Amino acid sequence: MNVSTGGRRLRSPAVIAVFVCAITLLPGPSYAAPGDPRDDQSIEDIHNELNGLYREAEVATEAYNTADVKATEQEKRLTSLRKDLARTEGRLDDLHDLVGAAARTQYRGGNLDSTGIQLLLGDHPDQALNDASQARQALRSLVNVSESQKSARAELDRQTDAAAEKLRELKSSRANKAEAKGKIEKKIAEAERIEAGLKKEQTRKLAQLEKEEAQQAKSQWTGPDSGGTSTGSGSGGGGTKASGAAAKAVDFAMAQIGKPYVWGAVGPSSYDCSGLTSTAWAAAGHPIPRTSQAQWQGLTRVGLASVRPGDLIIYYDATHVGMYIGGGQIVHAPRPGRTVTIAPAASMPIVGVVRPGV
Predict the structure, then answer these.
(1) Which of 238, 348, 297, 356 is nearest to 6 (CA)?
(2) Could you tell me what percent of the chain has a pLDDT over 70?
(3) Residue from 346, 335, 285, 293 nearest 310 by CA
(4) How confident is the model at residue 135 (pLDDT cuts 50, 70, 90)?
């Protein structure tokens, strides 16, 4: 699907995934030595250099978060399968003992007590005996159930082995993403040294440039509430107001303003971009996927013209996300070195909009 959103082309999830993997694995560019005053660089060049470093970091963060979520979910699945397998094996042992007892009872010409059978087959009402007092029918039914349980055990065994192999693959992927993330962390430290090494005048000009970009982004907003300002409490300017779970999610996200961005953090003292949005919606009673890519792929998509407070605006190649609060603004956790803040919704390339809770 290629759709234009505010002059930006939406990309398919497949393209997004390939792009993210490519960026994560490619070596980063070389940068000047830490502490270099960069007198020979324009403020625009320094700004672009820093933004490039932080974008690499965010891509790596989301890639690691995705790998971590998948590995964690697979660990839970494997644990569940192993419990099911243990229960099935226990049932088979009980059936084996009861079949033997039934055969011995019938051989001696006695009747088979149905009490133990009814208890054992309680999870299988369709297989329960109509007349457990008849030993021959009881024995035949027990044998059939035993064979059925053997088949179920074999299938569970197969699924468990497959799940264990998948978990090994996911753990390997998580380790690779963690290694890539570690390399990016070094670049983030470098970016922080660059900022710390700027002269006072350069710092002032850099802040002014960012302010001008924010003002320009406000003027480029083509969604609803153009020209409005957010009023908080789950409402936005321009007459847009959130209600219900969306209002709770907005209020929660707004209450986190000022808390630092930290890789992989989901609160309560720090957040990354998708950590903020997922935690806010969980607090509103509607859990959503953890990562920005999963949010983009798994939640209901709506047009930019229909965006309302509480909706999530997905940016770049689904590697950043912010929560719309109305008035053409979002609340988001921007990047390492910054805190949760309000920003123009059009300040980054928009992929699309998703709506939790529907």
Answers:
(1) 348
(2) 66
(3) 285
(4) low
